[in-house]
Amino acid sequence: MTTPISERPTAPPEFNPTGTAALRDPASMYMQARTDNPVFWSPDLHTWIVTRRDDVDAVLMDWESFSCLGNGGSIPVPEGFAEVVPSSLMSKIMISMDPPEHTEARRVAQRGFLKPAIDALVPEIEARAHRIIDGFAASGAVDLMEEYCLELTTQTLMALLGLGDEDEQLMRTLRDDHFAILASGREPMEEPRRTQVWDRYARAQLRLRALVEERREGSGNDIITTMATARNRAGGPALSAERIAMHLTEFSAAGTDTTAQAIANAILFLSASPEQLAQAQADSSLWPRVIEETVRRRPSAPFASRQATRDVKISGVSVAKGDMLWLALASANTDPSHVKEPGEWNIHRENPEDHYAFTKGRHACLGQPLGRAQGAAALRVLFSRLPSLRAVPDAPQDFLPLAMLPIRRNLAVEWNSGDAQAQGPGQAS
Description:
The chain is α+β, with helices and mostly antiparallel strands. The protein has one domain (5-423): CATH 1.10.630.10. It has 17 helices and twelve strands. The chain has helices at residues 20-24, 33-36, 53-61, 70-73, 87-90, 101-110, 115-134, 144-161, 168-183, 193-214, 223-228, 241-272, 274-282, 287-297, 329-332, 368-385, 418-423, and strands at residues 39-42, 47-50, 66-67, 141-143, 303-308, 312-314, 317-319, 324-328, 390-391, 399-400, 407-408, 412-414. Strands 1-2-8-5-3 form a five-stranded mixed beta sheet.
């Protein structure tokens, strides 16, 4: 039975996912809630918020009781674009499918993200990082978010997809458009932005579908060819061009922005912890730990969402069949019942990968090998070239304030301009 909204546990006053405090530190919203109201209702988002690690774990691991089907079906597609991007297609994004359909799509996509393939890509990521740094090393200050974090992740994505310069702007724009469209089910877009976003999005889908068809008989090792040439048991294409294009769209967003966010957040943490920065600079094996602790303390995507398929109770709270739940990953990662000194940023934790930044279970992030490898490589090269680099203290932080996926827009940094001459451009790490 559905609990009347007036009787549902209410959100604490500090719960404001698009407020300044939450954008800077999502975990700050849950310290009291985990004790007082571990599962509460957000009337603004029309969803339950789940805060405790044990509850988050239970939901993520029970796909039969907590479905992903509601994640794409609630996205409103404007009438003028429904022919190209019908609602039925939006419901086929990776985060909105359950087994067995999700299993087949993931099987096809995962071949492009296997760890050996990603590890082999690291020298290319490092070489691109050096070339990007060459362009601004002598300046002494830069907005690192645009000039390095997003630039590097975008270039890496272009290499993974086997795309040339002619598609670069399309992929850069598609990243933000996809996040905006995902959020529109809960945070509607206003005109004229709504039409502008959907127009670009539809044209991008058509371009990606054409690329898929061009590579159906290809022999390349890029992700588009890998997915386009995959065959089902009957010998036909495993996935349609429309489905592959939609999955490529997901990769363009998750594979660029979330990793760029992690790199930027790591620089903020390192700037506030000079002792741990010095340790990582002295021992390059610590850079993967820097990334792990960063995404534990401040996951790039602060929520994962599910829909209850039956009436259930979570921490004593009645959740009705059909209700949406947002799992607060930032809260689960800082739950003091599982993490010592959860608010501290410590790269020497005993189990550095024990967090939910990449979620868990059947929907664990496909691209996590890439995110981990690229994040560590980006930091390793950056601080080898510009060892004195630090975030500018008290610089304004600009975000695209989406509750589900807040996007950092800037990161002001500065360094001693002599670093560039001391290190030498293009030096191998």
